Amino acid sequence: MSKELVSALNSLEEDKGIKKEIIVEALEAALTSAYKRNYGQAQNVEVEFDDKKGNIHVYAVKKVVEEVADSRLEVSIKDALELNKGYELDDEIKFEVTPKNFGRIAAQTAKQVIMQRVREAERTMVYNKFSKYQDELITGEVERQDGHFVYVDLGQVEAVMPAGDQIPGEVYRPQDKVKVYVNKVEDATKGPQVFVSRTSPGLLKRLFEEEVPEIYDGTVEIVSIAREAGDRAKVSVRSNNPDIDPVGTTVGTRGQRVQTIVNELSGENMDVVEWTDDNAQYIANALNPSEVVDVIFDPENERACTVIVPDYQLSLAIGKKGQNARLAAKLTGYKIDIKSESEVSGNSSDIIEDNE
């Protein structure tokens, strides 16, 4: 068993990256507990493991005292001096008490410790790997689905995609390849837990970075994203190079770049609008494709405004079930009150607020 154990420790260090010293320390602690459990709980013992030869020794540690009250914990100064003239009161002496049949218990204990350390090391490795992928895009394979979750194999770990992170109407079949956004990585008791999403705005940002080199290298910057996943999204962009049109670059020739993303997201419509530090113009851009006549800011609320549109553009500005205005509000961070020109006199209108 000795040679086998030393060989196993060396292999673990080479193959799993688990330092031998860590396992030896854990093994000695476990063997100490095993000895006390089987041979005498009251004793103060230490177990030493020779990681070169694999030998295991158990020592009873006794304190040098004038008079012995408990022979399991103490040794008299008289007996100590017979062993070594250098001993003094309160010194600690180790007496070997290794049982003859301790090898069997040691072997079982060593196996348990090694298996536990291997599991812990593998968990740590997986957690460290996937924690680096947090807020990133990764391609996985659909494994299965139940009433609440889609389970995605990312290699080494099974990620979960909750119902709220699944695109409405999207079908996930086993063995389908799917791009997901890593929302969160937890070091849970049962092992690393990875949560992924198809509805996060972060997914859309990473898809644009993949598809548009100018966004990836920072020439064009995504300022804000508002999504109603699977249906429609608005993305505002700005250029850090005055010679590059941010919207045209992002959309691509004949819309090819944005169409690739639309296809990836099951037909989710994309409005790409230009960000500007002129808030009125930015809000007007965000309400695309509607025309905007004027933007009037509320003097009592710096994040609220009234947007005036031509009468015939009112429905377009608000959008189906208020979606266009709602996404514009999320994109800009403004509370938007949309009125037609004929309503400016004071008639009420729907108010769309940024709920984020």
UniProtKB/TrEMBL annotation:
Assigned keywords, A-Z: Cytoplasm, Elongation factor, Protein biosynthesis, RNA-binding, Transcription, Transcription antitermination, Transcription regulation, Transcription termination
Coiled-coil region: none
One CC-aspect GO term: cytosol
Chain ranges of the S1 motif domain: 133-199
GO terms assigned for molecular function: DNA-binding transcription factor activity; RNA binding; translation elongation factor activity
One GO process term, biological-process aspect: transcription antitermination
Alphabetized Gene3D superfamilies for the sequence: 3.30.300.20, Nucleic acid-binding proteins (2.40.50.140), NusA, N-terminal domain (3.30.1480.10)
CDD domains for this protein: KH-II_NusA_rpt1, KH-II_NusA_rpt2, S1_NusA
Subcellular location: Cytoplasm
Principal localisation: cytoplasm
Lineage: superkingdom: Bacteria
InterPro entries given in the database record: KH_dom-like_a/b, KH_NusA_2nd, KH_sf_prok-type, NA-bd_OB-fold, NusA_N_sf, S1_domain, TF_NusA, TF_NusA_bacterial
Role played: Participates in both transcription termination and antitermination.
Annotated family: Belongs to the NusA family.
HAMAP family noted in UniProt: NusA_B
Oligomer and partners: Monomer. Binds directly to the core enzyme of the DNA-dependent RNA polymerase and to nascent RNA.
Name of the protein: Transcription termination/antitermination protein NusA
Record gene name: nusA
